[in-house]
Amino acid sequence: MAMTSCPPECKADAAAEARNATLKRATLQGAKRWSSAHEARPAVFKWITRYTTRSRHSALGYLSPIDYEQQTIDRALLAA
After folding, report:
1. Residues sharing a CB contact under 8 Å with residue 19, sequence separation 6 or more, in sequence order
2. Residue 63: beta bridge partners?
3. Percent of the chain beyond pLDDT 90?
4. What is the pLDDT of residues 30-54, one digit of tens each?
5. What's the N-to-C CA distance of the chain in angstroms?
6. pTM for this structure?
7. How many angstroms separate the CA atoms of 26 and 43, rounded?
8. Are 46 and 54 in contact (CB under 8 A)?
9. What angle do CA 14, 17, 18 make, to 5 degrees?
10. DSSP string, the chain
11. Residue 70 pLDDT more than 80?
12. Cβ distance 53 to 64 under 8 Å?
């Protein structure tokens, strides 16, 4: 029986699940209980902002997105 690869939706789901697990571990798990979604939103927003701008990512050579973008811009300017 031939093995089939995972469809694109499967990979997107896996990435979302991994990100959600990281969010829960870092922000929500046992550290605090909010009485409403309105109270939880600022903490989640803060985490998302930090994760998407400052956290180092293996896909970016363990650079933060901001550092990776700056490095890419610097390389492009040097090549021009």
Report:
1. 51
2. 57
3. 16
4. 666 778 889 888 888 888 888 778 8
5. 52
6. 0.54
7. 10
8. no
9. 85
10. ----PPPHHHHHHHHHHHHHHHHIIIIITTT---SSHHHHHHHHHHHHHHHHHTS-BGGGTSB-HHHHHHHHHHHHHHH-
11. yes
12. yes
Q: Which two tokens stand for residue 54?
A: 């400052």
Tokens of 46: 């803060």
Tallying the residues shown for the chain, one arrives at: 80
Q: Is 2's pLDDT higher than 60? A: no
- Band the pLDDT of 20: cuts 50, 70, 90: confident
Give CA–CA dist 11/13, Å, rounded.
5
- Whether residue 47 contacts residue 27, with contact meaning beta carbons closer than 8 Å, is answered with yes
Q: Which residue reads 């390389």 in tokens? A: 75
Name the residue type at position 8.
P
- Contact by Cβ (8 Å): 51, 22: yes
